[in-house]
Design goal:
20 strands; Immunoglobulin-like; about 15% helix; mainly beta; 6-stranded mixed β-sheet; about 300 residues
Length: about 300
C-alpha cells in the first residue's frame, strides 16, 4: 500500500510537470508570482517651463542618476507611484525640444530605458482660430492656411498639421487682431508668411487641418476643420482611410460635429482664388461656420472678404 501511494504521487508530479511545460510563460510567471514585463511610458508633459511629468503603467523606482537631458541640468526628481517628476535648472527654450534619456524599473526589478523629446512649455499660447484656407492652389496662389489671433501671445511650439504636411512655429509674438499665414505649396506669396515642411500642398479634395499646442502626439488640440468635395464613396465618403480615421478621432473628442464627409465643409466650388472662409469667427465645429468667397476674393493676411460665391 505504501509503495502504491508513492507511485501515485510520482505519476501526479510527472503529469503536473508535463502540463506545466505546455503553459505559456505568462502563466508560469503568475504561478511563480513574478512580473516579467517592464514599465511602459504612457504619457509625458512639460507642466512648467522647468518641470516635466512622466506617467507609466505601473509603480516605478528610479536611481539618482537615472535621467540626463541635453544642454541642461537636472536638479530634482520625485516619484509618486506611477508618476515621475523631473525639475531642470534652466527653462527649455520656446519653440524647441530637448532630448531626455532615462531608465526606470518596477517593483519586480524589470527595467526600461527610453529617449524622448520634450517640447518647451509655452504658457502664453494665443487664442486663435483657423480663419481661411485653400486646397486647390497653383503656382501663383499656392495652398495656404490663415489663423485669426483672437487674444495675443506667443506661437512657440504651436503646430499646424494638414493631410501629409505640417509646420511648427518658433518663438513668435502674435497680437490680438493679427492674421498669421502658413503656406503649404510652392509658389509666389507675400512677405511675412511661413512655409510648411514639405511644400507639397494640402490634400486637394478630402482632408483635415488641425492646430496643436505642440508637435507632440498627446498635445492639446486648439482648432480643426474637416473638408470634402463629397464625391468619394469609400471610407465614410472621404475616399481615404487616413482622413476617415482622423475624422472619427476629431468627432469622438467633440472637436468636430460628425465624422463623415457629409458633415465636412463642402469645398467642391473652391478654387485657388475662391478660398474657404470662416464666417465672423463663428466657431460651432460645424460646416455651417464656413463659406466660399467670390472668385479673386481670397484675402490671406487680411480680413475675410464678405463677397460670397453663388
Amino acid at each position: 500500500m505504501k509503495y502504491l501511494v508513492v507511485l501515485c504521487i510520482c505519476v501526479l508530479c510527472v503529469g503536473m510537470a508535463m502540463s506545466c511545460t505546455e503553459q505559456p510563460s505568462s502563466l508560469l510567471n503568475i504561478f511563480a508570482q513574478r512580473d516579467s514585463s517592464p514599465p511602459v511610458l504612457l504619457d509625458m508633459e512639460m507642466v512648467t517651463p522647468t518641470e516635466a511629468c512622466l506617467r507609466f503603467d505601473e509603480l516605478v523606482m528610479i536611481k539618482k542618476d537615472a535621467f540626463t537631458i541635453e544642454d541642461n541640468e537636472i536638479i530634482d526628481m520625485g516619484v509618486w507611484d506611477e508618476l515621475v517628476t523631473i525639475t531642470f535648472k534652466h527653462p527649455l527654450m520656446p519653440g524647441t525640444f530637448s532630448t531626455l534619456e532615462g531608465r526606470v524599473q518596477d517593483l519586480g526589478g524589470n527595467s526600461m530605458r527610453f529617449s524622448i523629446q520634450l517640447w518647451a512649455k509655452n504658457t502664453r499660447i494665443p487664442s486663435l482660430l483657423i480663419n481661411e484656407f485653400t486646397t486647390k492652389g497653383n503656382e501663383n496662389h499656392p495652398d495656404r492656411v490663415e489663423f485669426a489671433i483672437l487674444k495675443g501671445g506667443n506661437l512657440a511650439g504651436v503646430t499646424i498639421e494638414g493631410t501629409g504636411d505640417s509646420y511648427t512655429f518658433g518663438d513668435y509674438e502674435a497680437a490680438s487682431g493679427d492674421y498669421v499665414v502658413v503656406v503649404f505649396g510652392k509658389g509666389t506669396v507675400e512677405n511675412g508668411f511661413f512655409f510648411s515642411k514639405n511644400q507639397n500642398g494640402l490634400a486637394t479634395n478630402n482632408g483635415y487641418i488641425c492646430v496643436y499646442a505642440t508637435p507632440e502626439w498627446n498635445a492639446e488640440l486648439l482648432d480643426c476643420v474637416l473638408y470634402s468635395t463629397k464625391e468619394a464613396t469609400t471610407h465614410s465618403g472621404f475616399g481615404s482611410k487616413t482622413v476617415a480615421q482622423k475624422a472619427e478621432e476629431l468627432a469622438q473628442g467633440a472637436h468636430w460635429n460628425g465624422s463623415t464627409a457629409k458633415d465636412a465643409i463642402d469645398i467642391s466650388k473652391a478654387t485657388a482664388t475662391r478660398s474657404v472662409n470662416r464666417n465672423n469667427c463663428t466657431d460651432t465645429n460645424r460646416a455651417n461656420d464656413w463659406y466660399i468667397c467670390a472668385t479673386g476674393n481670397a484675402s490671406f493676411g487680411a480680413t475675410n472678404s464678405t463677397n460670397r460665391h453663388n
